[in-house]
Amino acid sequence: MPITGFFQRWAPGLVTLKGYERSWLRSDVVAGVVLAAILVPQGMAYAELAGLPAVTGLYTTIACLLGYAVFGPSKVLVLGPDSSVSPLIFATIVPLIVADDPGSAVVLAGMLAVLVGLIEIGLGVAKLGFVADLLSSEVRVGYLNGLAVTIIVGQLPKLFGFSTDADGFVDEVRQFFTNLDQRSTATLVTGLSVLAVLLILPRLTKRIPAVLVAVVGVTIVSAVLDLAAEGVTVVGELPQGVPTPALPWTDLSDVLPLMVGAIGITLVSLTDTIATSSSFAARRGEQVHPDQEMVGIGASNVAAGFFQGFAVSVSGSRTAVAD
User: What is the pTM of this model?
Assistant: First the structure.
């Protein structure tokens, strides 16, 4: 196989970079700025949803995008921490944490991401792209809708400015209403204001990214009015720089339970990836390469795992913003 053909097959991003046209730069910079404004808060939020420190969401976002940029075939797909896989990560690693140790959770999540990535790369190399079709659309819709309800109920206490120690969906609902007297008015007003921007602005104009306005606006307001002093919880100071890449490893006994979780995450993430890539490829008149998509998202997961990150998936909403 010629060198160009080799890179076209295994690292299509490098071929795209070689043929990059200067006229694309302005649009790409605008898309990059808007996506960064979306990915930073979402990455931190989904990290906490997975039971991990918020900063790991930033590490994950950077590493996975760089991995897919080299090995992924699509020019528009946006990968990152996602609501469809974060609860699966949480359910997989929590039983393996001996104590309330964030460091152990980070390593376990990294191991899980590497396992997911290796499975996906193996499927792509073996040309098993059809595996992504094993989950029917009905199962995916049911899973995502159930997940949406679960996430909403789980995040309601945070919207109202307090936390619960619930065990399960029903207990979460009960504790939310039981502890409602602990609500923070400042937190609730801030959260509802952001939601209002996200829901109303897209109905008024499509030219201004609602997420960008919401994120920048609430950041400025938080700093000017010192909302932290009013009881609004902020992320606080984050570690500087990017972690040194390292193989995440705890114990051999953790591999089997992590592998079980990795298979479930692989099916969900690949199904999302193939469905999203097919949809946007059809709109853009491009061809879908399911096997290479598996290699691309697999490389993204391995990269995330080596940089203290966690498993990722493709986001249809963020891809729409990029497109």
Answer: 0.82
- In whole angstroms, what is the distance from residue 316 CA to residue 280 CA? 9
Q: What single letter denotes the amino acid at residue 298?
A: G
CA distance 28 to 34: 10
Q: Which amino acid is at 22?
A: R
- The answer to whether 159 touches 188, Cβ cutoff 8 Å, is yes
Residue spans of alpha helices (H) in 72-184: 86-93, 102-125, 137-159, 169-178
Are the C-beta atoms of residues 293 and 72 closer than 8 Å to each other? yes
C-alpha–C-alpha distance, residues 131 and 267, integer Å: 8
**Token pair of 307, please?**
């940089």
Q: What are the two backbone dihedrals, phi and then psi, of residue 207, each rounded to the nearest 5 degrees?
A: -85, -20
Count of CB atoms situated within 10 Å of the CB of 239: 11
Write the pLDDT tens digit of every residue in 135-193: 566 776 776 677 778 878 888 888 898 888 777 788 888 888 998 888 899 999 999 99
Q: HEC states along 175-197? A: HHHHCHHHCCHHHHHHHHHHHHH
Which residue in 92, 95, 99 sits closest to 113, CA to CA? Answer: 92
Enter the tokens of residue 40: 């930073």
CA distance 61 to 81: 7
